[in-house]
Amino acid sequence: MAHLFIIGLGYSAQAIRAAARRRGWRVTATGRAGELAFDNEVAVRAAMAAASHVLSSVPPADRADPVLERYGDALGQHWLGYLSSTGIYGDAGGAWVDESAPTLVQRPGAGRRIARAQADAAWLARGARVFRLPGIYGPGRSALDRVRAGRAHRVDAPGQVFSRIHVEDLAAGVAAAWDSAAPPGAYNLADDLPASQNFVIEEACRLLGREPPPLVRLEDAGLSPMACDFYAENRRVASGKARRVLGWVPRHRDYRAGLAACLAAELATAGPAASAPRARAGQ
Fold first, then answer.
1. How does pLDDT run along the chain (283 residues), one tens digit per residue?
2. For the stretch 218-230, what's the b/e string if a residue is b when 16 or more beta carbons lie within 10 angstroms of its beta carbon?
3. Which residues lie closer than 8 Å to 259 by C-beta, 6 or more apart?
4. Residues 6 or more apart whose Cβ sits within 8 Å of residue 220
5. Closest CA relative to residue 105, chosen from 95, 120, 91
6. Which residues contact 238 (CB under 8 A, 6 or more apart)?
7. Quick check: 191 and 163 in contact, CB under 8 A?
8. Pick from 127, 143, 169: nearest CA to 12
9. Cross-strand bridge partners of residue 268
10. Is the dihedral of CA 6, 11, 15, 18 positive or negative?
11. 3-class secondary structure for the chain?
12. Helices 255-270 and 197-208, interaxial angle, to 10°?
């Protein structure tokens, strides 16, 4: 039986764990939702030695990758996977980027994201399948939740686009790398329609039967520094390599299909008594 060891069982990795279990795999993980503590070195090394596949979703800390620093010597000949970010490409002025695009490792003064780019490069050097991910959303973590909570914004940023991926499509992309015996390397996983975040918020409002929030300037939106950093970059992420090599196609091809699936999943979880709000007309 294949045994997947996940280091850092967060939101995305939980979907990957579910995909592995559907295949009948054994899965062990570190993190608050996992069985092991990252600092329990004896247990982590034993689990790693017993695993056939190792996947890390742990981001760099203090400009270093904590997994490679502490457990790099134990990775051995495992199938290796790493969840990275398309943020390593930096600003592309709205152009398409694929895995051949330069990363921030080659750009002096890239700021905090250079640590992520360096971790990405270090995992590639280890022979990992590195999955470069754009904005991740899914049930319980989507524009629907921000609209309901009154935290949704529409920012006046003409021409600004973002790429995104539904968490189930992310997990399917990783699983496709298992099933296809994909060679080591970088793989972008993104849906088919890079789009303005405003369009996503408007669609979430339509599904929930609410009026969209007013359009505001970026400096008036009250966003966190990290959220503001996203608006400082503009790119479209191409995932042709994953489709060619892994045979992967996202089930949720754009944000409309993805948000509809999120709402359907939430209503199904809420039980048969739940019903969807009436959507506004138009759009």
1. 899 999 999 999 999 999 999 999 999 999 988 999 999 999 999 999 999 999 999 999 888 899 999 999 999 889 999 999 999 999 999 999 999 999 998 666 556 689 999 999 999 999 999 999 999 999 999 999 999 999 999 999 989 999 999 999 999 999 999 998 889 999 999 999 999 999 999 999 999 999 999 999 888 888 887 777 778 899 999 999 999 999 999 999 999 999 999 999 999 987 654 444 443 433 3
2. eeebebeeeeeee
3. 142, 143, 144, 200, 203, 204, 207
4. none
5. 120
6. 96, 97, 98, 188, 190
7. yes
8. 169
9. none
10. positive
11. CCEEEEECCCHHHHHHHHHHHHCCCEEEEECCCCCECCCCHHHHHHHHHHCCEEEECCCCECCECHHHHHHHHHCCCCEEEEEEEHHHHCCCCCCEECCCCCCHHHCCCCCCHHHHHHHHHHHHHCCCEEEEECEEEECCECHHHHHHHCCCCEECCCCCCECEEEHHHHHHHHHHHHHCCCCCEEEECCCCCCECHHHHHHHHHHHHCCCCCCEECHHHCCCCHHHHHHHCCCCEECCHHHHHHHCCCCCCCCHHHHHHHHHHHHHHHHCCCCCCCCCCCCC
12. 40
> How far, in Å, CA of 226 to CA of 21, rounded?
34
Q: For residue 176, what are its two tokens?
A: 């496709």
Of how many residues is the chain composed?
Answer: 283
